[in-house]
Amino acid sequence: MGLTTHVLDTMHGCPAAGMEVSLFSTHGDAAALIQRLVLNQDGRTDAPLFDDASLRTGTYRLTFGVAAYFKARGVVLPEPNFLGRVSLDFGIAHADQHYHVPLLVSPWSYATYRGS
């Protein structure tokens, strides 16, 4: 299954459909964009970010467009936003395993973990 992500909107109690997500490979402070996409109705990508064959060990970053998503939902946010984007830096040590990076998010908080 490679690398997958899933975002749940904890303010509204639903998947974060329409949220923009960017995947980067990282090397120290440098980051290179791999792909940018929009989450589907289930708050997931339509396909894995990396499938089993293309997953490689290394360090990566997922960046989630939190403020833009909540503004699109009609939530009035202060300027500047408390959470504009949420960036998660993580490592893949075993390319033969599945890595799932879920995000639980509201305009004021977030949580993540290595899922299954």
Protein architecture, described:
- By secondary structure, the protein is mainly β.
- It has a single domain, classed as Immunoglobulin-like.
- Helices cover about 5% and strands about 45% of the residues.
- The protein has one helix spanning about 65-70, and strands at about 5-10, 15, 20-25, 30-40, 60-65, 85-90, 100-105, 110.
- The strands form two sheets. It has a four-stranded mixed β-sheet, with no helix packed on it.
- Strand 7 (about 100-105) and strand 8 form a beta hairpin.
- The longest helix has 7 residues, at about 65-70.
- It is globular and about 40 Å long.
Query: Number of DSSP strands?
Result: 8
What is the beta-strand fraction? 35-45%
User: Percent helix among the residues?
Assistant: under 10%
- Subunit arrangement of the protein: single chain
Distance between the termini: 10 Å
What's the mean pLDDT score? 97
How many domains would you count in the coordinates? 1
Structural class: mainly beta
Across the major sheet, the strand order is 2-1-7-8
| CATH topology label | Immunoglobulin-like
- Contiguous low-pLDDT stretches (5 residues minimum) are none
CATH class: Mainly Beta
Radius of gyration: 14 Å
Could you state the order of secondary-structure elements as H and E?
EEEEEHEEE
Number of DSSP helical runs: 1
CATH H-tier superfamily: Transthyretin/hydroxyisourate hydrolase domain
Offer a concise description of the structure.
The chain is mostly beta strands and 116 residues long.
